[in-house]
Amino acid sequence: MSRETVTAGPPVASLGSAHDALLILDVDEVILEFIGPFRRLLAEYGAHLSPESFRLTGNVRSLSTGAALTGHELDGITAKLFEEQDQRQPLVAGVAEALARLSGAADIVFLTAMTPSFYPLRRGLLDRNGLHFPMIATERSKGAVVAELAERWAGPLVFADDLPPNLETVRRSAPDVHLLHLMADEAFRPHLPPLPAGAVSAADWPEAEAIIAGWLGCDGRG
User: Fold this and answer.
1) Are residues 64 and 139 located together in one domain of the fold?
2) Is the overall model pTM greater than 0.90, yes or no?
3) Relative to the CA of 41, which of 32, 77, 139, 187 has its CA 20 to 30 Å away?
4) Which residues form the domain of 59?
């Protein structure tokens, strides 16, 4: 029997709107640093990340033996990072300022695939940093959630994520949504799979803000 997928956060139907436009943002590597904090946590376990492909498994090795950590071991370390995210995960440079400006032209919703049980910790972390926008943490396909959101906003809609496969699921489920690839840490950029058709990549939040503002038809700095 398959396990029921879990979602934490406000139901899509309950979200209020102040604008026709909607900006949907992944959290790890888009709003909060993930790879940098993950590297520092790995060092505490005597391991290091040296990417040779676009995945964690196989790219994290013991400093003492050179052996690759198993998926189970990586899951445990990732869980510890999320358990301690309020001490370990800082905001991505420039994000707070960019969202303060963009929120004048679009509603903003955070959409994270983080295990929903960590929702209260992440909600508190974002709130302490002044990012009070609604957040949905889900094990569902992001494409399915974005498609539901797209039914409630007239547009334009923008979706930003660090993982090209997530951008692809949104392209398939909500083809009219603008797709932005944003990844705070550059470690995996050389190994990125192809972005879906129509997706645009930004190196950082200043570049991302300019792209999003263009899609929204505003200057982003008003």
Assistant:
1) no
2) yes
3) 139
4) 35-87
